[in-house]
Amino acid sequence: MQEKGTLYIVSTPIGNMEDITLRALRILKEVQLIAAEDTRHTKKLLNAYDINTPLTSLYDQNELKKSSYIISRLNDGMDVAYVSDAGTPGISDPGYIIVNQAIRNFIRVVPVPGPSAVVAALSSAGLPMDSFIFSGFLPSRKGKRRQLMKSLKDETKTIVFYESPGRVISTLKEIEEIFGNRHAVIGRELTKVYEEILRGTVSELIDSLKERQIKGEITLIISGAEKSPKSYSHEKLTTRFKELQNDSKLSTRDIVNIISEEMGISKKNVYKDVLQFKDKGTR
Question: With respect to CATH, is domain 6-115 assigned 3.40.1010.10?
């Protein structure tokens, strides 16, 4: 029985050609076919590294139809790499359909990680990134865009969007109206010659950009909403402590972390109440 090929999902530079991994270069040389969002764009990358693997196109408008062809090649034993124009395929780029079809056909899908604009922007933003919401490109239609913003207004996690340079100021004004004047970061032309990272409140970013001609790809990061402190009482806290104390797997530290998260109060205050409760229990 013919052994099936492997589909490699290969991340490519978002600007700086040096941001290609050694593994990505090896895979692009070793596979029998590279499917690319734009073959002309990918050809520049391949030429820079003397890679002569055959190319075929796979982009938004032909992804469904072309994926079937690529799946047939994979079923015949051919190894294929898929690359988008920049960054990680499938992240606001084509890639979902070909990956989904490969999985349905029991074809091995291997990620070859690398650049991603959302991760690059977050890493240098200076805003919390232990958890975040990524919403991709904001809708171009005003009604849908505002509806999405309103649905995220109370989100406490850091929020990341992609936006076009021509619309970024109007988007910032809508964000200020709906979210309030939060801390925000703009990553423009990340990893490229004219890379720029702007930090400040939303109103400060509007002021710094309004007199400029803005060019390049933009990643927009907005700080999450502040957590509303939840009401609690000493009695409620100690009751919850007793409940959790019955679980022998939980240490006092674990219990404090759980109560702090559940009740929205500082760990310091939880420790204070917990210690008072434990002292009383030993008398």
Answer: yes
